[in-house]
Design a protein that fits this description.
By secondary structure, the chain is mainly alpha-helical. Helix content is 61%, strand content 1%. A two-stranded antiparallel sheet has the order 1-2. The longest helix is centred in the C-terminal third of the chain and has 20 residues.
């Protein structure tokens, strides 16, 4: 039942006042924990980041499941502007990711309907880091926030934004940076968001129908350069950026570079256009041009480890060794990512997988296990394991992220150990991976199922560290994982691929769904991909994700440094995948005392296409 609007505020206040914290000593069922030996380094990190945690009210399995079973119907009701459904659900909740999600959706509904009083009350109950982007947009419209940096970031975004944020930009049109605002209009046209483009243009006092902006819109839609000479510098530069991006993603790097170079005002480029301009120069190995492109990127983009590293390489190739060293040092300080590790190697260093912190104590792990938000995540996790409910598993992951959000690094590592002990492997990695100073590599790079991984790696002649690196990226060691396109298990093998492998190996296709069969099939397929792709692990990794035909298509007509090949892969997912799998493999080599501990050597050279 929908509540009359004049009753909303009173009923909401009453409902919120009835929230009660319920606790129970009932604990979720726990599987037998898997043992891991965590070796501390010789010196204990002297950080003041000490373990400190006050457990929240406990939650038993029935409470967690009852909330989960209501969640979808409540969210649907809230999106239909049902205030009573939101207030009743929240009145029964502890603080949780589910409650935060419902409150954010309710705030969007309230903002859309301009229900300011109730919006203000509910907004104050969402932690700042938990507020959705659109909710913050409505808060700006209502005068509850005034963050110029937030608004500037919105207007520089050329992708689709939600209703509240489009409304904010239209409302603030007169005070926006006009150059950025019109750049957003053009970006929306290039992304076929014509209605949003037309509305913002109107708010700016212009139109995309007819005139110069109409010519630009036509050039973007058709790919024609015929009328670009009649446009101003901003308009034509954006058009050249759009056309250059299209060619670069088609791997036509020479013409893409030439199109990009026609632009006289690079400030009109989107971040994506800028990055593909740089990738075009990189693929062509035009080092001086690459340096110039990166130097003119927006400041935030220049700070990305990708471009810190490649600007360093550009300087190194153009005789600016000291400047290159400075950039490598900056890139190396960005964490344990692909380019941080490559930069470390350029400086003469190597991968360091030594823990700098002792393992969490049993008392610390036990203290974390008493936390109600942690219990909720584990309740949903264990139930989803038993039922095979992957939607519930995803909610368990969301609850874990919520539960650990305010933890310092020592406490997060205790949570990571608890997750590992509970075989909640993906969240063990998530929590351990989120620390910057206290590093436990045994939890970042876990090695479950060792007997199977090592046996089938050896049988198929593939590097066990590479296999572990791939599993970590594919499934985070989630048994029975299922992708949106149907890939299955630890190694995310497609059923059609599994049928082919089963015929070749004399297996049953149904073994895809077992741990043993999945690892056997996955390692065989890794070896097969490598053998059919010029015995190259970088190509095989790309082929495992995107298919061997695409991996071949992306090769150059000449041999190419592996890192350049990886960076110029046109699919965002595959580009990120290759870099992460190969970085993972390097860390696993160090942890497993295997020989291949140089990422640059592991990336090697990708041979010419034949």
């Amino acid at each position: 039942m929908t509540v009359p609007r004049n009753m909303t505020y009173a009923l909401t206040t009453l409902a919120i006042s009835l929230v009660a914290a319920c606790s129970s000593k009932q604990a979720p069922k726990k599987p037998a924990p898997e043992t891991v030996i965590l070796q501390p380094s010789a010196t204990q990190n002297a950080s003041a980041d000490v373990f400190a945690w006050q457990p929240r009210a406990g939650e038993n399995v029935n409470q967690s499941l009852n909330s989960y079973r209501q969640l979808e119907s409540v969210l649907n009701a809230v999106k239909m502007d049902n205030d009573m459904a939101a207030s009743q659900f929240l009145a029964q909740q502890h603080n949780s990711a589910m409650a935060e999600n419902v409150r954010n959706e309710w705030l969007k509904s309230l903002g859309k309907r301009q229900q300011f009083a109730t919006f203000k009350q509910q907004y104050q109950q969402v932690e700042p880091e938990g507020r959705h982007q659109e909710v913050r947009c409505y808060a700006h419209l209502f005068g509850m926030e005034n963050d110029a940096q937030f608004v500037n970031k919105l207007v520089r975004n050329t992708a689709r934004l939600p209703l509240g944020c489009n409304t904010l930009l239209q409302n603030r049109a007169g005070s926006l940076n006009q150059n950025d605002a019109w750049r957003r209009v053009r970006g929306l046209i290039s992304n076929n968001q014509i209605t949003d483009a037309r509305n913002l243009a109107a708010a700016l006092g212009g139109s995309i129908d007819g005139g110069a902006e109409g010519l630009l819109a036509n050039a973007i839609r058709t790919g024609s350069t015929a009328n670009l000479g009649s446009l101003n510098a901003q308009q034509s530069s954006f058009a050249w950026g759009v056309l250059g991006l299209k060619l670069a993603k088609e791997q036509n790097f020479g013409n893409a570079f030439n199109y990009y170079s026609q632009a006289s005002d690079r400030s009109q480029f989107t971040d994506e256009q800028f990055e593909w301009y740089a990738r075009s120069a990189l693929r062509l190995q035009r080092w001086a041009d690459l340096a110039n492109i990166i130097e003119t990127m927006p400041a935030d983009l220049q700070k990305d480890p990708t471009w810190l590293y490649w600007l360093g390489r550009s300087y190194q190739h153009t005789g600016k060794g000291n400047q290159a060293k400075n950039l490598y040092q900056q890139a190396a300080q960005t964490g344990r990512n692909f380019y941080a590790l490559l930069a470390t190697e350029e400086l003469g260093g190597k991968v360091n997988a030594q823990n700098n912190v002792s393992p969490a104590s049993p008392n610390q792990v036990n203290e974390i296990s008493r936390d109600g938000a942690i219990q909720r995540a584990l309740n949903l996790f264990h139930t989803s394991q038993q039922s095979g409910d992957w939607k519930m598993r995803r909610q368990a992951q969301t609850e874990w992220r919520y539960a650990t959000r305010g933890m310092n690094e020592t406490t997060r590592l205790a949570a990571a150990q608890l997750a590992f002990n509970q075989q909640f492997y993906e969240m063990a990695i998530h929590s351990a991976d989120s620390t910057d100073h206290l590093l436990n590599f045994n939890l970042r790079y876990i090695t479950p199922f060792q007997n199977l991984v090592q046996a089938y790696s050896q049988q198929n002649g593939v590097d066990a560290a590479w296999v572990y690196g791939l599993i970590r990226q594919e499934s985070r060691f989630v048994l029975g994982a299922q992708s949106s396109v149907g890939a299955q298990g630890l190694m995310q093998v497609m059923p059609s691929t599994a049928s082919m492998i089963a015929r070749k190996l004399g297996m049953s296709q149904s073994e895809l769904y077992t741990m043993d069969g999945n690892i056997r099939m996955g390692t065989w397929y890794m070896a097969d991909a490598r053998n059919n792709l010029q015995n190259n692990e970088v190509l095989a990794t790309a082929g495992y994700n995107a298919g061997p035909g695409r991996a071949r298509k992306w090769q150059a007509s000449n041999s190419l440094e592996g890192a350049i090949y990886a960076e110029t892969i046109p699919f965002n997912e595959t580009r990120d995948y290759v870099k992460k799998v190969m970085t993972n493999a390097t860390y696993y080599s160090a942890l497993m005392n295997l020989p291949r501990t140089s990422l640059k050597q592991r990336m090697g050279v990708v041979p010419a296409r034949y």
